[in-house]
Specification:
It is elongated, with a radius of gyration of 25 Å. The protein is built from two helices and eleven strands. A seven-stranded antiparallel β-sheet has the order 1-2-5-6-9-10-11, with no helix packed on it. The chain has about 220 residues and is mainly beta.
Length: about 220
């Protein structure tokens, strides 16, 4: 069965950045911007690959084997971000080769991608049956992401000989995120496959794909 989907959208994405140089290698930045992040192309595929499941969980909940599918959503819209950033940067050493930076950020996200589960009817050879379909959707909740980053970079040109070309680049990032309920946490979870959803407040969980602590150290 042919399935054609069309989606169009337009966005106004203003951006403003201000920098203040305090002298002595110290400067401050303040930025505001609107941004969008389109969904991964694979998440928008609009075809169904049905499989029949007869697991104990499915039999207990549905009384019989049931078809299920994991599909894309061609009507996914980009995630919209409203971003506020602040940083303090200190440059030191010969030619400013050393850098110490503190940055803080806050983002409000609309249309965050999460999983949705629904029952759909399909017909094959004149027989109509139900299937449990897991698909990505744009959440109606507003996601909140806040955090800070500390970074240090320096070339140790004061070392003798060949060692003068060595240096370090290191960053630590802390991120706190919440605000988006997730009807399913994993499409392969038995409860999800059976059409059940979580009864806890999943909006307190971090947004998917965001680590609370991130450390990078590059000598």
């Amino acid at each position: 069965t042919e399935n054609t989907a069309t989606l169009k959208y337009d966005y106004w994405l203003p951006s403003a950045n201000v920098r203040f140089e305090a002298g002595g290698g110290l400067q401050f930045r303040l930025g505001f911007s609107k941004s969008i992040t389109p969904p991964d192309f694979g998440l928008t595929r609009n075809f169904y690959n049905l499989t029949l499941s007869a697991s104990q969980q499915d039999l207990a909940v549905n009384g019989s084997p049931i078809a299920r599918a994991t599909v894309g959503n061609p009507f996914l819209r980009p995630i919209e971000g409203t971003n506020l950033d602040f940083s303090a940067e200190y440059y030191f050493g010969k030619n400013g080769l050393g850098q110490l930076t503190f940055a803080a950020f806050h983002k409000r996200l609309k249309g965050v991608l999460t999983n949705g589960t629904e029952r759909l009817s399909f017909t094959n050879n004149g027989a109509t049956f139900e299937a449990l379909v897991t698909t990505p959707v744009n959440s109606e909740d507003t996601g909140k992401v806040s955090g800070f980053e500390v970074s240090y970079q320096q070339v140790y040109d004061f070392l003798p000989g060949l060692l003068s070309g060595f240096g370090v680049n290191a960053t630590y990032t802390y991120v706190k995120s919440s605000g988006v309920r997730q009807s399913t946490l994993s499409e392969t979870d038995p409860d999800v496959a059976a059409g059940l959803v979580s009864n806890v407040d999943t909006s307190n969980l971090p947004l998917q794909g965001l680590s609370k602590h991130t450390i990078n150290f590059t000598p």
